[in-house]
Inverse folding.
C-alpha cells in the first residue's frame, strides 16, 4: 500500500529522471562560470563556496507570525525548534 495519494504519485512520477539531470546541469553551469580557471582545486573550492552561499539563502527568519485573520503576532524565539508565538507583551 502506497503512502502517497494518487495526486502526489503523479507529481513525483518523473522525480528520478529530473533528479538524475541536476548534477549534469550543475556541472555545465560551473564549467561556463569557471572557464578561465585552470587550477582544479581552485574550481572545487569556488564551487563549494558558492554552494554554501546558496544553501544559506534557503533560511528565512521571521519575527512576526501572520495569522489567517490578518493579525500579526510578534514572535519571541528562544529556539528555532518548536517555534511558538508567545502572547505576553513583555
Amino acid at each position: 500500500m502506497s503512502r502517497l495519494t494518487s495526486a502526489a504519485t503523479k507529481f513525483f512520477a518523473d522525480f528520478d529522471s529530473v533528479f538524475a539531470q541536476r548534477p549534469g546541469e550543475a556541472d555545465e553551469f560551473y564549467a561556463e562560470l569557471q572557464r578561465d580557471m585552470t587550477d582544479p582545486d581552485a574550481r572545487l573550492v569556488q564551487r563549494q563556496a558558492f554552494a554554501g552561499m546558496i544553501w544559506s539563502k534557503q533560511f528565512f527568519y521571521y519575527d512576526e507570525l501572520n495569522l489567517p485573520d490578518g493579525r500579526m503576532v510578534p514572535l519571541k524565539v528562544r529556539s528555532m525548534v518548536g517555534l511558538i508565538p508567545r502572547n505576553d507583551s513583555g
Observations:
- The longest strand covers residues 64-66.
- Strands lie at 64-66, 72-74.
- Helices lie at 6-11, 15-33, 40-56.
